[in-house]
């Protein structure tokens, strides 16, 4: 292995450490993150111009593991979601349901510990008792979902929002994690998943005749280091399952693809948006995916009844779906609130029809990439880590222009509360994508915007 390859890998790992440090110290964290992402992308591009060496996959995976290490040295930075994950797993191990109880419920006081509840001991009374009730009024939902200084768990007065496969993951991690370790078990698990996905991408890229080192665009990404090893976001598991589903579909294993896609939807609901990309005449994959997703809810439905929907109605209320509006930052630039949801719905249906129409005409990885990316641009969700699966899909599909969408999401997140600025940031990302796609499809387009089609069709 050449000195340039070693230097590039070590530099990428050092950049991840720098991002974690900047986030911890709040030194312009999102700007540093986006700049670091661009630098790492340049490093990966330069590395792919070097001879691959003897073990390119091992090289990429080893550096990916190094990139995850800095995040494991601190508590979660970008959000407190991991504390909720740890709590949900602990509740399930106790024989209760996180859909039936909120974290502050005194009925679960015996499960409190100083890490998750620094201001509330098992003998203290929180004053919260009984099954959760999520109101429909936006103001009431906002008031109910505020944080409480007695616990590190976010929204401790509302039930969980996470679907059953995510809950199974939380439970498995909680089973082997001591309470005193807090979120470390989840961080380690997320870091491991990120490294496994790096290996999966590298192996699949080589099978398709492409340079496996492009998998470093995922594995060495400072965004992945921040949201996996540090924040332990469950979106990493969703990304792994989505990529596995796409690979299975490309290898003509529709039932396996359906099981994996349904499992991904059981982690985060967003993968359901990819169903049109898997639709064929036989409909095997979509039916298996929906069946898997529904079946995952059945045990919780028996245990919690209608409470199994958790905080999902409240979340949709906060995002503006209950009053007919939508928080879409791009649509907000040109449409009044009452028209945004209709416009978003029309765009979503149009994209679904296009994805079905494109079935068999382009690699399924490409369809999933633009379908998922376009969905993020239409809805512009508040939380930027929702874009993690898009990073993996862009690498697999060879459509790296879509990487600007998750990067833009972090810049928009830093501008929270400035609606016009957020909209312009997302619009700029959309413009980059549209321009690149237009250049790719122009007559006699150069190869710099694409990878060989024959390689993608494997």
Residue windows where pLDDT falls under 50 for at least 5 positions: 446-458
Helix percent reads 55-70%
* CA distance, first residue to last residue: 29 Å
- Mean pLDDT equals 92
Please state the CA-atom Rg, rounded to the nearest Å. 22 Å
Q: How many DSSP helices? A: 19
Structural class: mainly alpha
| Shape category | globular
Strand composition percent: under 5%
Largest sheet: none
Q: Element order, helices and strands?
A: HHHHHHHHHHHHHHHHHHH
Number of E-state strands? 0
Keywords:
458 residues, mainly alpha, globular, hexosyltransferase activity, transferase
Explain the layout of strands and helices.
Layout: H1 3-25, H2 29-47, H3 56-68, H4 81-93, H5 138-144, H6 164-175, H7 184-207, H8 216-219, H9 222-230, H10 235-250, H11 254-265, H12 284-304, H13 312-318, H14 337-357, H15 364-379, H16 388-397, H17 404-414, H18 419-440, H19 453-456
Helix pairs in contact: 1-2, 1-3, 1-9, 2-17, 3-7, 4-6, 7-9, 7-10, 10-11, 10-16, 11-12, 14-15, 15-16, 17-18
